[in-house]
Amino acid sequence: MSLAKHWRLQDQRYKLIGGQCEACGVRLFPQRQVCPQCKSQQVRPYEFGGEGRVYSYTVVYDAPAGYEAFIPYVAALVRLDEGPMITAQLTDVDLNDVQIGMPVEMVTRRLRQYGEEGLIVYGYKFRKPLPDQPA
Amino acid sequence: MGRVYVIGSGQTPVGEHWDRSARDLAVASILDAMQGAGIPEADAIYVGNALGGELTGQEHVAALIADFAGLDGIEALRVEAAGASGGAAVRMGYLAVTSGLKDIVIVTGVEKMSDLAGPAVEEALVTAADEEYEAIHGLSLVALNALLMRRYMYEHGLERRDFAHFPVNAHRNASNNEHAMFRRPITVDQYENARLVADPIGLLDPAPAADGAATIILCSEKVAGTKPDSAVEIIASAVATDAIALHDRQNPLFLQGTYESARRAYAQAGIGPDDIGVYEPHDAFSIMAALSLEACGFASEGQGVRLAMDGEITLEGRIPICTMGGLKGRGYPVGASGVYQIVELVQQLRGDAGANQVDSRLGMAQSMGGSGATTVTHILKSLH
Amino acid sequence: MMKPMREVGIVGYGAYIPCYRISAAEISRVWKMGEDTLHLDEKAVPGMDEDTTTIAIEAARNALRKAQLDAEKLGAIWVGSESKPYSVKPTATIVAQAVGATPHTSAADWEFACKAGTEAMQAAFGYVGSGMADYAMAIGADTAQGRPGDQLEYTAGAGGAAFIIGPGEESMAYLEGSHSYVSDTPDFFRRPSQQYPTHGSRFTGEPAYFTHSFMAVRCLMDELGYGPEDYDKVVFHQPNSKFPVRLAKRLGFVREQFDDGLLVSFIGNAYAASSPLGLAAILDKADVGERILLASFGSGAGSDAFSFVTTDLITTGRNPLPTVSQYVNRRQEIDYARYTRHRGKLSMS
Questions:
Q1: Minimal Cβ distance to A67: which of B133, B138, B142
Q2: What is the CATH number of the domain that holds A37?
Q3: Active-site residue C219, yes or no?
Q4: Closest residue to B134, CB basis, from A66, A87, A112
Q5: Is A52 within the bounds of a domain?
Q6: Distance (Å) from the C-alpha of residue B154 to the closest C-alpha of chain A?
Q7: How far apart, in whole angstroms, are the C-alpha atoms of residue C263 and residue C257?
Q8: pLDDT tens per residue across span B51-76
Q9: Domains of chain C (ranges plus CATH)?
Q10: Does residue C167 contact residue C64 with C-beta atoms inside 8 Å?
């Protein structure tokens, strides 16, 4: 459990702040110093909107240590609307109701905690978008 | 650059060695190899070990093993590249010999995994992936490969059971390998009915965690000349990398790093995929085996699984793979697997593969770390 | 009556309710062989990855979108809850960081059982009213716990509502005045080492809930010179489906006035979010120029009563955002076994 490491990652995890290359315009998550496309070092912070589509998903039944309490859970690769792909869990979903291509939106949830006495780590997960029109 | 040969090898059986530590296993394989090759001493030892710290609390294993193997004062370094650690150690040995700086080099791969249980092992294995952007989300390596397998099934119209041919082939071959962890064949039905670990990957798909150590002795042309009957030449050695995180890859279903590593190796050897008679891929998961076949040019994109369904990966097929069981049937002591692959290719190329013998002069081994973030390719040629 | 020197009001608000539901019938099946459901239908249950912090964050984000306000302009983010994930470490700083209000802001957690959220609202009205800040956010959020098999288990729900308090001229609903009424009445409480609260059963009724709620409202209405007929909508704290109805009638209100804000049968008692969510539900449907009464109740005990009047911003400022009823209607029913996993009632060590 590293307090400092999780603290450093808050902007990415809470607000989906990645990067945009000023030279070629490509958007990245997470931010990097070197643009993977054009190798420019002019990469500035960019806040993503949180909307995307499911590229692939899996239902995890055997979890790594620290995540056993959550099984079964859905992990996915999500293609954000702005371009980059992101790895995250899907939440508030019926396990049988997930499809490749389905639209999703970012929410902030508990990723894990370090025991009953340790840090609680919050970060991004994705769920089916709430409808925009009043019911 | 000088030519590089393998003149000896040794291996422990792969399995759960409750009574032996990593140190014990490594030393046993080293002594076995040195004795078999008639080599009393060496100029260096490179040790491939991926998870010594995570799983046993022991880093710095090369110095430790060198000491306990009686190799006082020898140049000894540990090499780590997750699942490719063994192959990477072979690479270091190759570089040392081809550069002309060393005449005889020991390369050992060792992993001790049974000291910890399930979730703790999964947690250790996922250090091969991107900790801050993949592992933190509860992804295990199985789950990461499941994401690839599901997408592949979606794009190419395949079912889970179509992938069974990889483990079925692996177990069939392992049943004739006295060092393999699993000695009984499995069926397609058993594969399909095994419980899910991370959907769509079931229990009979992932290569199992295990303990084991394997050693090869590399030498220069000068030394090889003194043992003409046992020498097998390494005619190509190449490493390439790719983004660690699947989400950072241009096309997650194309192993760009594996493609590049194979391309460099083919170029060095002056050959192409059609010339390879035996291929030992990093079949940690059937999807990795399929994507590796495609990246190396044995099958076109999207045809890797179909190649297996058509029976072309068996000993009798067009491109036999996992001829002594592969990671799946032999077992997968992570950092040791890359060296086991070379040991087995040497067996094939010397004609010592018994019931699993393939008639071939050229064999290729690929050791991968983190689902293709590091790929180490070696091509070996028999001298007969 | 309390009223700042500067005109203040609600410039934006947001809600959040988790999607899982467990029916009273299902709880009763496990504990009472199906007898006695306490007249509730179901209650909201947080997901395994949800807590007061995550609930508060979504409610806060919704409020900022509705107010179309840059989070950096907030002078305070205050979270009222009795289910803080950390006993020591403010939920409010996590919310503030997540919505982009840090670092130049005040932040703290408030506690007064089920009225912690409206407690924060009172303070926010004073903060903005004094000119110390132009905007302050008050959030009531909870993931309530009930002892297994106890009456409270049927009602202990979850949810959150956030209110951004700002200048009266920018408000969707401006504040006419408020009144707080408290006393040391130990009707319901929890000691630090305990996972579940202790309650005084029937003692929580007349001496606690009814006395304080009634008095806060009565004093406010007397000070403003209003009768029950002057209010278009009213909302009270909802610990169960009977108390708020009985209170409304005692104060002279009728069903058409309190129906829009009555959520307890659908989501249970959301504790510090209970009456705030009711207010949000009312604001979702309110017309221009409606007078609304909010009276919370917190055990320990006390009540905050507020009188609001909606402005034309209540309709023109209405973004196509999730409404309370959309969150209410977003539901996935679970059984008691799964409920115990969600609520951490299984000992894992």
A1: B138
A2: 2.40.50.840
A3: no
A4: A87
A5: yes
A6: 8
A7: 14
A8: 999 999 999 999 999 999 999 999 99
A9: 8-172+319-342 (3.40.47.10), 175-315 (3.40.47.10)
A10: no
